[in-house]
């Protein structure tokens, strides 16, 4: 519809990035989808926030530039997506991700004007400046850590007009561990067309908690805590109700139908049945070339290669372009993490 609340698709189907850059479906890490790490504010948010739930404690401290925002998270989603795609293709990955700035702007439905590049610089500054202290477990390890969302960001090349060309970002160990452990979920590309930070946050929570279930419900008070909203309860109720009303009118929220029950002060999320398969669902990977098993035994000496293959097929989130290379990469990671079998 022409009056849809969604942002326009700034880079429609047919642009080269659709099949090349975002052949990697957008992915978000589960830890920051579950917990209110990012600010919903559109102006610098300098509050220190503390959140506790189920034994998990998070304290988020801003820099002078303010907390990283929900929209700043686009940078992390893009980096995570590229790393997961590389893993699925059997390529080695590291916490350092290098990319063309224009690719990120297009893939996340941002403007490629001078303002778009300026906003990207600001996002990287806030991501590097926001400090988190937490005991969230990633990759099967629980430690109390203090870290930035990214360790550093650098512009490798700039055009004469001052626009970024090549950008290099080093992710925090916490976030990189989540990627290596596949603690991620696929997001709808239309996530990047949601205008309001609260819309994006509600979608993230729906994706995490509703998933592919028919329905998920959450009370307003708990929803406000999970969103990290600094609004009054009355104002937060009004904002949530407006999103639910617009979704009922336009059906614009990706993957999920959003409704608000005023009499129960509760948000109701219903799946539209459009969520893609994840780790827990079956992914069809063709039989491997028999010759790859000898190479796999060299990559993970002493291990039962068929057992590792079964684990790999269960772990895969999508069919890789080169299954043999992807399997060998999985075997190498297996050996690195576990060492020789006992």
Oligomer: single chain
Strand content: 15-25%
Domain count: the total is 3
Main β sheet profile = 4 strands, antiparallel
Mean pLDDT: 86
SSE string: HEHEEHEHHEEEEEEHEHEHHEEHHH
Question: What structural class do helix, strand and pairing data support?
Answer: alpha+beta
Strand order of the largest sheet: 2-3-5-8
Helix and strand layout, with pairings?
Elements: H1 16-19, E1 27-29, H2 30-34, E2 49-53, E3 56-61, H3 73-88, E4 96-100, H4 101-107, H5 114-129, E5 131-134, E6 137-138, E7 141-142, E8 145-148, E9 150-158, E10 164-171, H6 173-180, E11 184-186, H7 197-209, E12 215-219, H8 220-227, H9 233-250, E13 256-261, E14 266-271, H10 292-299, H11 305-315, H12 323-338
Antiparallel strand pairs: 1-11, 2-3, 3-5, 4-10, 5-8, 6-7, 9-10, 12-14, 13-14
Helix pairs in contact: 10-12, 11-12
Q: In summary, what is this structure?
A:
This protein has 342 residues and is of the alpha+beta class. The chain contains 12 helices and 14 strands.
What would you note in describing this structure?
Mean pLDDT is 86; it is low at 14-22. It contains twelve helices and 14 strands. 38% of the residues lie in helices and 20% in strands. The N and C termini lie far apart (61 Å). A hairpin with a 2-residue loop joins strand 2 (49-53) and strand 3. By secondary structure, the chain is an alpha+beta fold. The chain has three domains: 16-191, no CATH class; 194-271, Arc Repressor Mutant, subunit A, CATH 1.10.10; 292-338, no CATH class.
